[in-house]
Amino acid sequence: MSISKHWSSRYINSLWSETNETWNDNYEDWRIVGSNPFNRRLDIESNKLQINLLYIIEFPSKRLDIAYSMGPKINKNTYVILEADRGEDCGIVKGYTTKTLYDDLIRRHKNLEKDLKIKKIYRIANDEDFSLLEERKKMVKSAVIECRNHVNEKGLKMEILDFEYQFDLNKITFFYKSEERIDFRELVKDLYKSFKTRIWMCSVDKSMDKLLNDIIKE
Prior knowledge:
Blueprint: E1 53-58, E2 64-68, E3 79-84, E4 87-98, H1 99-108, E5 119-124, H2 127-154, E6 159-165, E7 171-177, H3 185-195, E8 198-203, H4 207-214
C-alpha cells in the first residue's frame, strides 16, 4: 500500500488501523492524533447557536480557531480566555466573521465539521492571565528541544516545528512535519514521563487556517 506524502489523519484511532493493537482509554494521556486535535468533547453544538457575530482567535503557535461571546463585541487584538479540550485556553482576537459564513464553510468542506467547532469565550484576559501566558511562552523553546532530542534518539523521520501548551496545562501539543507515517507510541510515552500531562502530536496542516483567514470580514 502506498502512503501519501505529508500523511495526517482526522480520526483518533486511525494510527492503529493497520495493526492488531488496541487502545486502553485508561491511558488517554498518551493519545495521538494526526491533525487538529483541539476540538473534542466541547460543551456546545455550533448549529444550535442563535448568534451571528463570531471571532477568529489566534494562539501563540499561530494556530487559528473560531469562537463566540454572549457579551458586548470584543475588540481586535484583545486576549481572551475561551473553551478548549476539557479545559480553557488563551488566544488573541484576530478578526471577525459571521455564523452565516461559518455555516457556508462547513457545507463546502464537510470534513471540517468535527474538527472546527465553535468555542465559547468566557472572558477577557486579566493581568494574572498575562503573567501565566508569559510563563507558557518561556516553556516553548526548552520543550521543543527536548522533543527533538527524543526524536533523534529514536531515529524518527520527522521534524518538530513548534509546541503549544493549552493555557490550563491540561494538554500540550507538538507540531511536526513528515513525509511518511510515523509511529509515535514510544516517543509519546517518553514525553509523557517528562511533562506529566496529555501529549498530542499534530501534523502541520495550514489548510484550516487558510479557510478561517478567508472568512474574516474585518
